[in-house]
Write a structure and sequence with these properties.
The protein contains 3 helices and 6 strands. By secondary structure, it is α+β, with helices and mostly antiparallel strands. The protein is globular and about 50 Å long.
Length: 215
């Protein structure tokens, strides 16, 4: 049996790891492999090429990565400023920003893990381009790309995609990580993420491929 704590460099805290608990009698719900038997194209999927989305816009017959403004965004440039004042200690403010959807591939039946290396590189280059484009807007101070995957977390469409939020505010988790990276630089005069990447390459257990991008 192994009980250990591992230092989380981006959170600056110890995380308990108990790998032996994988041998417990019950390890949680097991979801079926939804990838088998799923077609490459679904006629009523709003993310497949050529199909109509909820806004009424029609997707182009895209062959690679496809980006569009989210039809049902949770942040927007015209978020109303005249919000009702909440009671007591509660506070609120407009959630201003832009939301986009990034389809990884026209194939409905793939996941990020099933893309080949050139497709993953193209996706990373798209994320990088979106980060630069949206980050250059004067009203934007934070750009976040993220994926919620699977029915277990409430994702209703299995077509491989993620979202990008470009906002006038910074999410607390990212704010904390930025502060940690600043303290690391002040102490070591090295970028924390560069040291994380170097450690992963030296370990060799988790990296699957290496690609250098222009910053």
């Amino acid at each position: 049996m192994t009980w250990e704590q591992r230092w989380h460099p981006l959170r600056e805290e110890w995380v308990i790891v108990a790998a032996h608990r994988n041998n417990r009698p019950w390890t949680g719900e097991t979801l079926p492999d939804r990838g088998r038997g799923v077609p490459a194209y679904v006629a009523d999927c709003p993310l497949c090429p050529g199909n109509v989305r909820v806004s009424g816009a029609r997707n182009p017959p895209y062959a690679g990565v496809f980006v569009f403004d989210n039809d049902l965004p949770c942040v927007g440039p015209a978020a109303p400023a005249d919000l009702a004042t909440p009671p007591g200690i509660y506070r609120n403010s407009p959630a201003r920003g832009l939301a986009r959807v990034v389809c990884y591939t026209p194939r409905h039946d793939l996941t990020l893990a099933e893309l080949d290396l050139p497709q993953i590189v193209a996706l990373l280059e798209t994320w990088q381009g979106q980060y630069r484009e949206l980050g250059d807007r004067p009203e934007v101070i934070h750009v976040l790309a993220f994926e919620n995957k699977g029915e277990a977390v409430g994702v209703s469409n299995p077509h491989p995609h993620c979202q990008i939020y470009a906002t006038s505010f910074v999410f607390k988790t990212i704010e904390n990580e930025v502060a940690v990276c600043q303290r690391y630089w002040q102490k070591h005069r090295r970028a924390l993420m560069e040291d994380v990447i170097a450690a992963e390459r030296a370990d060799g257990d988790r990296p699957l491929a290496s690609h250098r991008f222009l910053i």
